[in-house]
Fold:
Amino acid sequence: MPEDAARTPADGRTPVGILGATGSVGQRMVGLLADHPWFRVAYVTGSERSQGLPYREAARWAQSSPIPPAVAHMEVRATRVTGEAPLVLSALDASVAGPVETAFAQAGVLVVSNARSHRMDPDVPLIVPEVNPDHLGLLEAQSAQPGGIITNPNCSTIGLALTLAPLHRTFGVRRLHVVTLQAVSGAGIPGVSSMEILDNVIPFIAGEEEKLERETRKILGQLSNGEVEPASVQVSAHCNRVPVIDGHLACVSVELEGDPKPEAAAEVMAAFRGRPQGLGLPSAPRRPLHLLPQEDAPQPRLHRDLEGGMAVPVGRIRDCPLLTLRYVLLSHNTLRGAAGGSLLTAELALAEGWVPGRRGTP
Amino acid sequence: MPEDAARTPADGRTPVGILGATGSVGQRMVGLLADHPWFRVAYVTGSERSQGLPYREAARWAQSSPIPPAVAHMEVRATRVTGEAPLVLSALDASVAGPVETAFAQAGVLVVSNARSHRMDPDVPLIVPEVNPDHLGLLEAQSAQPGGIITNPNCSTIGLALTLAPLHRTFGVRRLHVVTLQAVSGAGIPGVSSMEILDNVIPFIAGEEEKLERETRKILGQLSNGEVEPASVQVSAHCNRVPVIDGHLACVSVELEGDPKPEAAAEVMAAFRGRPQGLGLPSAPRRPLHLLPQEDAPQPRLHRDLEGGMAVPVGRIRDCPLLTLRYVLLSHNTLRGAAGGSLLTAELALAEGWVPGRRGTP
Amino acid sequence: MPEDAARTPADGRTPVGILGATGSVGQRMVGLLADHPWFRVAYVTGSERSQGLPYREAARWAQSSPIPPAVAHMEVRATRVTGEAPLVLSALDASVAGPVETAFAQAGVLVVSNARSHRMDPDVPLIVPEVNPDHLGLLEAQSAQPGGIITNPNCSTIGLALTLAPLHRTFGVRRLHVVTLQAVSGAGIPGVSSMEILDNVIPFIAGEEEKLERETRKILGQLSNGEVEPASVQVSAHCNRVPVIDGHLACVSVELEGDPKPEAAAEVMAAFRGRPQGLGLPSAPRRPLHLLPQEDAPQPRLHRDLEGGMAVPVGRIRDCPLLTLRYVLLSHNTLRGAAGGSLLTAELALAEGWVPGRRGTP
Amino acid sequence: MPEDAARTPADGRTPVGILGATGSVGQRMVGLLADHPWFRVAYVTGSERSQGLPYREAARWAQSSPIPPAVAHMEVRATRVTGEAPLVLSALDASVAGPVETAFAQAGVLVVSNARSHRMDPDVPLIVPEVNPDHLGLLEAQSAQPGGIITNPNCSTIGLALTLAPLHRTFGVRRLHVVTLQAVSGAGIPGVSSMEILDNVIPFIAGEEEKLERETRKILGQLSNGEVEPASVQVSAHCNRVPVIDGHLACVSVELEGDPKPEAAAEVMAAFRGRPQGLGLPSAPRRPLHLLPQEDAPQPRLHRDLEGGMAVPVGRIRDCPLLTLRYVLLSHNTLRGAAGGSLLTAELALAEGWVPGRRGTP
Structure:
């Protein structure tokens, strides 16, 4: 870890590099870091096509808020290892993320990654901050210490895990059936062609069902003896792409121990709080789960922006003729499900002392 | 049954009245009856607003093919009982269909109805022609004979029943989980507001889940002693509205006796034929189920028009971690799932001698 | 004007009634008045269907931000004349707005209306606050003084007028050709059916082209001797409805005196400021017009929310082979083009002393 | 011209090669040639990625009708010059079309191209068969005779030219203003990203406005002394992309000599017929222009398929406050505007004896 970077910068905020900053998740990260109380953008990296250009020219900015001025004129760099910032957020494509993130970690940098490359590595924590913050303990097993790699889950897994966590703690989740209706922003830019999705639905997303099934078990698993034992939850997932810009909806049927009533489950979900709420992390929603009373909620366009897109609205909790209960959840896939999730994880890591050279929060 | 109507008309085709002809399903019926080999439109009825107007002015025609000239200039009538045609297709709204259809039946007319009003009446057949043509036998128990009422199921039930039928016959279906992604045309015109559905999904359709659960059991049931014993199949349904014009998609997980492999189920589905195919009914698809090999099929825009919208494409047959198998099906909701389904049922009724005064097909 | 209402309320803010508060523009008004520094909602009115219900039940809330708590539990009233608040914002439907607004004015209330009913009345100001604030002088001619009626223009006119104003002042606008691509929210809720607009465009909006042509001339006109002499600008308008939620786009070709270059026009537009900017009205954008440099801007989804939806982005200023110049403008039709426009007008009226019993701003 | 290819094939139909057959326009060509009475597909070519694969695997088939069986199993070839077929339809990308098409022509093949590469070459006819069939005479000037190159215009130009032609002949068109609302299929596959166009409109299409302005003048021009003198029509075009699958809409204001009334223009347009109608070409619509009486027509989803997508519906003919008349037109951009237009041109060329080695039609 280079001493220079670790030292308190002029404004006291921790410098952060953004890897793969020009894509759709990278743009969201840049947007969220504008005026962040703990972090400031130290540099941005991009693909060969972008390198050397000012960020505002390199990124095809597709957000409805303008490019933060502090970044607009930054020159986009190649994604080369540097210790200039003790922390990086990685929005790299999975095709390149693996070795690059490892190299940053070995250079003493803490990498919080949105890519799938290291998610299932036994010594890499897969974090939803409200659900399994203790899994950060896996970092101790990583050879790169004080550098290391933390991942956040697939965009469709995060919302599911947040709703399952309180049910699992209170009742025990045995198995579940989940069908997702996922927004096109989940596929990035250009991603899904308009010819594929206008007046249409695609009942398949490559690799997504496997990720949902596998990652859910790891997140709900137990850390003991430096290993995460996956939860023995059976998951059947079916993933669809729908013509929605942002917001993944999921229809869930779940089997719970003790056969609780919908009202009991609703109560447990509404009361759910996690460590980000306890610590008052800057990006933490006040309530991770919002229970909506309307019979036709949640809906992507109406509810995806609840608490800045960091809360997960839940609705239609009711009996299931086959398993125990059914409900619908929504999560903003590029905020809570990607950039915002990474940022909240980075805030957790800083607060708990995992960022090299930084002693907790400002 | 008025003798005049029953007598062979000039062109030998059976005259048919269309009740509620100006709405979205009624328009489809009008379109399908243009150049029909067995039927010709005798009259069209509509609400007060439409009465007395020529059809082309009364209907806000929303089909991509033009209004059939034979109907374009017909005057829209009030929906008053008449025996002028021995057969009527009813696209009436459920709020008015019940007593009107009963009155037509009692006047000796055979009513084939798309409305939900009589579907669950014990003596009214709920027909998917390939699945339960023998249920037409229930007509004998109706007091209105030779008039009577036949219904076709809800638009989302028809496709599901068609895929379950061969599995149920061969293996036995124990229970199933179905999540639908339904097109806006299912709600008629004006139906779903654009403000509700652009860039959005609505995870609720009033009454739809109950219909799916209840009607499926009746259709798969056994007729004996003049009654239909519902199949003992447990169904958990979740219905969503998506921004698609036509074509209801359904993600199905099903538990089958004997735990068959996906290949065995695929074979049984591909081989499925029913009475409409045997009889060569004019609107019958050559194959009720089309198994699509692509990993991302079926899709509404690409596959809803297979065999004139009367075939049901099926894809992604695969193991289910919870039940036995999973698959995706698509059905064209205003063709196979409504107007085309009614017409095929009417053709079956004519071919089997149920239309008053008509001895089978021309 | 009832003395009670005019007296400073507990919190010093002017009480405001909202007429027709449950519809799409009414909802936007309610949203914008949450935490407003000068105004507070005194009461909300609605149609018979809504009366007596708490607002949160009466309104089918379709905004992505939650209902402001102060209004959520207010009981929706009938739209009956009351002097309880010295100012009302009217989002009434044009079918009822005319006489109701007159009655409020005669009871001594200042009505700022979004309805078209009184827009072309000779003694009623039709205000775009940056363009013709002096037209408020027409109020003096209204018989209802101190009550009165002020209107804001049609949603598609406001953006056009804002871009024309600086060109007209500097160069003189002789004639123009405008083709609009208008969002569905402009038609309210339910408004445009999804069956009409998915995968489609409708090249007609009833009455819209006439409004654009007529209102533009009044807004750009001169007030003298208590009358507004319409500008002698020839306008050819064609209006289309497109599948966009919010944001009216307009493609404009304009003929200017003196044949200025695109650069000169751009400079004049970028420098444009009006009285709202001078007075620092709470809802005023810092810059009414934002000139965007991208070759494919402005776009509804990306740019409609500039400055809280109150700024009008302009792009593609270039030569026209037929007239002088061409450009593209975008305006948020339910913010700047309706609720936000009304509110800014109300702020202007308060600041300039037209609200009965209120001496300027807090 | 290889003798073999020119000889009558077994079934008497002229063999045709399709260059660039796997893209969106190529797919339409393949679809239209299924069961064509005059032509049969001899071979299909594609990019490196596709070569050697059977067509059904190489093409991401995105049409709602299935792949014609005769082509489904054809192996996709490299686009190498061959005289195997006397005629080729080119759906090549403009980035490669130029020299490849020239090479085919020099090998004695008649190339009918949808690419823009040769459209403005002085000796290359730019054909809308109903408008300027005599421009085929330019072929005589091409050095490659009997091979040669014919082009069809840009997808947005064809519909405009078809509506202008009868007006120009009868009255004379002096200048016009056109704003297009273009479908995403015009950009091919993947083309426009769903992230760019859902809930959005893009007010810019690279190069499109120039093409519209330039090509219109050439098509309406006069052939004399082996050269086409462009019509002296001034065109101001603005092109937008809208979220519609197929169908380009255009809002036109036109200045005509003699100031005719809308009724006179409508009469002239309705009566318009061209050589394809006279010759009874297989793909010719009975009427090139359909005048629709509804106040809100034409609309892409409802009217794009008129006469198999080969007719151009026109509506809202009315006075223009600035020029003479205004109207709206729609053309199916991948049928009449691309593949269908190329095919109709090929039919014209065959009928008039321009296909090497073929003496007119079968």
